[in-house]
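A note from the maintainers: we've had questions about how concatenated examples are separated. There is no special marker in the raw files; a new sequence line simply starts the next protein. For clarity in this README we add a label.
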Amino acid sequence: MTLKKLLEGLLEEKAPGPSPSFSILHIVKALELIAKKGPIGRGKISQELKTGEGAARTLIERLKDAELVVITKLGCSLTKKGEEVWNEFRSVFPQKVRLERIDLTLAPYNIAVQIKDRGDKVRAGVEQRDAAIMSGAKGATTLVFRNKKLVLPTISENVVRDYPLTHRQIIKLLKLEENDVVVIGSADTWERAEYGALAAAWTLIQGSTTTKT
């Protein structure tokens, strides 16, 4: 089963009960929180995700049903399967960083996500931009690491010359290899910038990455 299919399957409607009021981005963020801070309580997860208690409860129950988390008195922790899924996610999206100074976007908050070996899937970056906007961000900018340099498809073949501040930070913060992609989510808050970057990045893993069931 692909990683994409496994995680998006958690959003499917199940009877009886209401439709999920959370998105794939909340699932990814929840897994990250549990991986880094677990065991962690439902209240803290709800607070971090900016969701209601009910949504957090449903999300956690679905993670539990999928055998990705275990719930104890101390809170939620990843199971062995959950750790495998999270490690698989990190193998595709190895780094997520804040960009403090940037000359490529006008939004005040910008977060970059690295996607491994997906440069061939990038067209003009429109799909990534639209996904970011739908998540609540101002937009997303998609760059490809090609021939040992960053390029901005259809806009700039020389990012180091045209956007030196952005280029300097990305090269310093991310360990890029040939055909890697960097998606920058831009927004009016760090939270929306992060969700925008993740939403944009998620569009690049169609039908790839497999994980054990």
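[label: protein 2]
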Amino acid sequence: MAKQCFYDVLGVEKTAGIADIKSAYRRLAKQYHPDRNPGDHDCEVRFKEVNEAYDVLKDDDKRAAYDRFGHAAFEQGGNGAAGGFDFSSNFADVFDDLFGEFMGGTRRQSGPRRGANLQFNLEISLEDAYHGKRATIKVPSTAACEACHGSGAKPGTKPTTCSTCNGHGKIRQSQGFFTIERTCPVCMGNGQVIGDPCPDCSGHGLVRKEKTLDVEIPKGVEDGTRIRLADEGEAGPRGGPSGDLYIFLSVKPHPLFRRDGPHVQCRVPISMVTAALGGQIEIPTLDGGRARLTIPEGTQTGRQFRLAGKGMPVLRSRSHGDMLVQTFVETPVKLTKKQKELIAEFAKLEGDDTNPESSGFFKKVKELWDGLKE
């Protein structure tokens, strides 16, 4: 039976990059791994094919030879793998994924490790998002223990190399066809053991500490914007680098304005008189100023006016969005007797031209009713 194309085995295009090839291998290796499919011969065969294909395509020289000569490049006398593949090196690529699921955890590396990333939620006002601001925050975190300088050992002593794993942090076990690595149970993957722990940090090398940080919030940020502060996360164990701090911004609802991308919407009430006769009104803007808006006579509820450049700043840009003002006509309430008399007098003078919308609507209603009677 002819061997299947290595690209087809992994389900990738011939132009695929190494990241795509590696991702496809990890997914398939987990899917067909014998530990997941005990006693399934077809899965075992497929697992070997996936490893063989990945062994060739992950190597630039082998891949170039395969692209030129196909499987012949790796048959006897060829310059490739001479009928075999390096399964152990492939298995290391997928080891973290497999044992994160099979053993309920992830593999730990010996030596210094990077500290954990932290998340901080910060609520700001719409005005803060408009102007930008400098905020001071307090973040619970960890720092290297000053007494032991992060080693975890009592001052004057040092950690010693783990005799079980010889400092590697992991041990190997052979199980038939497979060689399995697992975290050293003595040093828990650290590669070192602490005989006399530091009393200040109980041997952890880290202590809890609250950080005070200044955060620059740029103009134009939106709800959900993420700001990354490099190396401001938790300190790394055993002198490892610190993680990062991610600040997630949320913008509080505003009593007058509603944001729509770079634009700002504002719903403004106008009196019946202003709507009928026209006039001018003043409305606030997010920059702290005022804008004068001319209302033409006969303005109806829902009419929208645009104030160019009065919206939100566009992030990392000098441009601004617009302010969209939508009017609604307010019906007067708590009228005096005189006001009611004047409105009643006005009603006697109304005609179809005065209220074209309502006149047109009820005309259509009358035609509909007349049609139903027939």
